[in-house]
Design the sequence.
């Protein structure tokens, strides 16, 4: 994703994000106001650090040291592996998962007998580390009774034959998405802020 894939919707204080832009798989979805706040803060931090943000700058960039100005000024997209590693580290630090090695020390016999397929099975969790986010969103949208086709469109899924016949407008998709924002918001601060405004 690049910064140009974002469009801020002031009225609702959230972003629309376009995924796989320019491909046959292109679709868009929205962030929560909570997420948009953190996106803005992250981009402001990068600008304060000395990065020249442009439309083609990566939305999520590689890490950098605050004193390394040449690296700051040459942002690279964060790789998939680096992102997975970061999320895994955060999940372990938050106490949501244990950092357990796949094979304990001193189990030489088992090391030789186990295959990579066995190791993958043994490392599976009830909630997938990254795909769990998509499952969470799907579940919350289903419970909020969002229009089924719009839900699938916002998740980037095909709606079968309806792909050719049903094209909800941007406004219809946003209106349905607004129904689930509170359920997708993590920090109570944002819900309370909304209540105070109302």
Sequence:
């Amino acid at each position: 994703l690049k910064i140009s894939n974002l469009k801020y919707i002031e009225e609702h204080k959230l972003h629309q994000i376009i995924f796989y832009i320019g491909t046959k798989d292109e679709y868009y979805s929205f962030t929560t106001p909570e997420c948009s706040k953190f996106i803005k803060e992250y981009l402001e931090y990068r600008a304060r650090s000395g990065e020249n943000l442009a439309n083609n700058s990566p939305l999520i960039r590689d890490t950098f040291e605050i004193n390394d100005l040449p690296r700051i000024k040459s942002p690279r997209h964060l790789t998939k592996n680096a992102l997975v590693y970061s999320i895994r580290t955060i999940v372990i630090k938050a106490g949501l998962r244990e950092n357990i090695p796949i094979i304990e020390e001193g189990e030489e016999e088992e090391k030789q007998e186990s295959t990579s397929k066995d190791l993958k099975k043994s490392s599976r969790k009830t909630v997938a580390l990254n795909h769990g986010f998509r499952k969470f969103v799907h579940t919350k949208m289903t419970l909020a009774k969002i229009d089924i086709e719009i839900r699938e469109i916002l998740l980037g899924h095909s709606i079968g034959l309806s792909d050719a016949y049903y094209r909800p407008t941007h406004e219809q998709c946003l209106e349905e998405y607004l129904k689930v924002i509170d359920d997708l918001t993590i920090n109570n601060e944002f819900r309370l802020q909304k209540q105070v405004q109302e």
About this structure: Residues 109-119 have pLDDT under 50 and may be disordered. The radius of gyration is 20 Å. Residues 33-49 form the longest helix (17 residues). The beta strands are 6-9, 14-19, 27-30.
